[in-house]
Amino acid sequence: MRANPFGSLGTVSALTLGGGGLGMLWGATTFDECVATVKDAADAGITLLDLAPRYGDGKAERVVGEAFGGRLPAGMRVTTKCNLGNPPADRVGRILRQSIVASLRLLQLDRIGLFFLHSDRKSTRLN
User: Fold this and answer.
1) Edge-to-edge strands, sheet with 17-18
2) Which helix (H) or strand (E) covers residue 38, if one does?
3) Strands 11-13, 48-50: parallel, antiparallel or unpaired by DSSP?
4) Ramachandran category for residue 124: left, alpha or beta (phi over 0 → left; psi -120 to 50 → alpha)
5) How far is residue 107's CA from residue 66's CA, in Å, rounded to a whole number?
6) What is the DSSP string of 46-110?
7) What does the pLDDT read at residue 126?
8) Which 8-state DSSP code applies to residue 125?
9) In principle, which of 52, 66, 82, 85 could form an S-S bond with 99, CB 3.0–4.6 Å?
10) pTM (2 d.p.)
11) What tens digit of pLDDT does each residue of 1-54 get?
């Protein structure tokens, strides 16, 4: 698997496993099939998992937690996200912390490689 530098995360695989399918958003699948997919991806050399709590209401993160039991394979990196919305400024820190804590619990990890803000805003089409 070709690898590319990715900032402070170090080198990661050119292919990333996205969490939408792991969260069972794209059709019928089972939790066990999703766990097997994560393990097969790692065995194939994928070292970056892109997750979010919104992918199946936490299912994608639970799948990864189950697949690795809190012990990521060497070189594996996990990203996750928070859909912040537009809260008052005094609530932003609390929302971000709660999102990270919940993700870490589901992933069975003590750290996340990269944390993004996720938006549900629909893109606008330019003419």
Assistant:
1) 17-18, 48-50, 77-82, 114-117
2) helix 31-43
3) unpaired
4) beta
5) 8
6) --EEE--TTTTTTHHHHHHHHHHTT-PPTT-EEEEEE---S--HHHHHHHHHHHHHHHHHHHT-S
7) 46
8) P
9) 82
10) 0.88
11) 899 999 988 999 999 999 999 999 988 899 999 999 999 999 999 999 999 999
